[in-house]
Amino acid sequence: MQMEVSGDAVAQIVQSIFTTMLDLEVSPADVPWLAGGDRLTSSVYFEGDWNGAVSLECSRRQACYFAGKFLSMDPPEEVDDDVRDVLGELANIIGGNIKSVIAKDVRLSMPSVIDGSNYELRICGSERADKSAFHSAEGPFWVTIAGKDRAAGKSVP
Amino acid sequence: MDILIVDDSRTMRIILQRAIRQAGYRGLTVEEAENGVQALERLHGKQPKLILSDWNMPEMSGLDLLREVRAVQNDVPFGFVTSEVSAEMKELAMRSGANFMLSKPFTPDDIQDALAPILN
After folding, report:
1. pLDDT (mean) for A39-63
2. Residue A1: pLDDT band by 50, 70, 90 thresholds?
3. Are B105 and A21 an interchain contact pair (Cβ–Cβ within 8 Å)?
4. pTM for the complete prediction?
5. Which domain holds residue B72?
6. Which domains does chain A show, CATH number per domain?
7. For testing the chain A interface, which of B8, B11, B106 should be mutated: the one with the most A CBs within 10 Å?
8. Residue B119 lies inside a defined structural domain of this protein
9. Which residues from B are below 8 Å from A110, CB to CB?
10. Between B9, B15, B104, which is nearest A96 by CB?
């Protein structure tokens, strides 16, 4: 059973989703993760042969920009329910596509969105988190895959 | 009602409606539901030409909705639009009576290819 998700696979999935659903070119970037600050994090969680989560993290401005592109309208000026819904849906689509390459018997949760400042998201039981940075016209954002193979007690990748 | 869209994401329901129009299907009456339970309520006494449903939803999943619909001998065309598509899920969907399974992300062309055999 394939449990590994390479950085190239993550990049390909993220780029395909943003190009197709948002008509937005994004590219892998070498941008260090900066904790703190106002931002949003949307996540979906996996349970089964592989336990973990996929998270999408970005600034509030970036989230509004994504919502505008997703809905083909001017970006909302403030984070609202539609912005959170779009960010959750993006995590859901990324997670669904990641799921197709990690394991057969894995259930995907509903997406959740954290909207706040100076927080840190930790996935219980995860031994490793692989964070990939991307760049769009509105700056960087990050996609994180954290998890552990339940049967083997092995972390990902 | 011509099409019933079932998805817990409001913005995804908007995107699907837009994709249907972009695929050339204009003037159709589209109704929405947030989950399978709400979809069954919308279907009461109505027979749409097509149901487009997400797979993973609260209250009642898309697969359970499909099973409920088929359990009352309703043969309305039913398609899944979902972020997670595996061979096993596709087989389960088809065995349960689905007409097609479309994965997210999708383009208007993907929607057109899926809907054409049913709506044309």
Report:
1. 92
2. very low
3. yes
4. 0.90
5. 3-114
6. 7-155 (3.40.1550.10)
7. B11
8. no
9. 8, 56-58
10. B104
**B-chain residues within 8 Å CB-CB of A108?**
56, 83-84
The ipTM (two decimal places) reads: 0.88
* Per-residue burial over B6-31, b = 16 or more CB atoms within 10 Å of its CB, e = otherwise: bbbbebbbbbbbebbeebebeebebe
Query: Is B120 a member of any domain?
Result: no
Please tell me which residue, A94 or A115, carries the higher pLDDT value.
A94
Chain A positions in Cβ-Cβ contact with residue B10 (cut-off 8 Å) = 81-82, 85
Nearest to B83 among A16, A96, A104 (CB): A96
End-to-end C-alpha distance for chain A, whole angstroms: 13
pLDDT digits (tens, 9 = 90+) for A60-113: 999 999 999 999 999 999 999 999 999 999 999 999 999 888 766 888 999 999
pLDDT digits (tens, 9 = 90+) for A117-146: 777 777 776 666 788 999 999 899 999 998
Please give the tally of structural domains in chain B: 1
Is residue B7 assigned to a domain? Answer: yes
Distance between CA atoms of A1 and B16, rounded to whole angstroms? Answer: 34
Residue B58: cis peptide before it, omega within 30 degrees of 0? no
Q: How many Å apart are CA A148 and CA A126, to the nearest integer? A: 5
CATH number, position B26? 3.40.50.2300
Residue of B9, B57, B106 lying closest to A89 (CB–CB): B9
- Residues on B contacting A at a C-beta cutoff of 8 Å: 8-12, 14-15, 18, 56-58, 82-86, 88, 103-107
Yes or no, beta carbons of A88 and B84 under 8 Å apart: no
